[in-house]
Amino acid sequence: MKVSTKWNSEQQFTSFQNENSVQLDGSQKNGVSPKAVLLSGLTACAGIDVVEILTKMRVSFSNLTIDAEAEQTEDSPKVFQEIQLTFQLKTDSENKEKVIKAIELSLEKYCGVAAMLRKNSAIVYQLILI
Fold this sequence. Notes:
The chain is an alpha+beta fold and 130 residues long.
């Protein structure tokens, strides 16, 4: 995997992977912060796994949203102490245990981003069924 990041101005950068790009901005005026990109990577990685696992389990679902919130240390470098994930999706209540299994398989076995972040930060989750 390779990315290239170009400085634009002030705290603003554009990061490229192939022809795809993301705008990063430490001040969050014209892009997302680098730490928010880490959280986005975690939510997308876990989401990809959950979708694949639920599909293989033949669980019907829709409206999947994953929110992440992180507590940071007071001292520099300010790192994540704990990351709270909230998985929200629409499915029948009888599928709850399968959804929990899919989330736990992702966070504990398949998601490489979770594995990397877990070396420094606790990752906890909650599930909301619509």
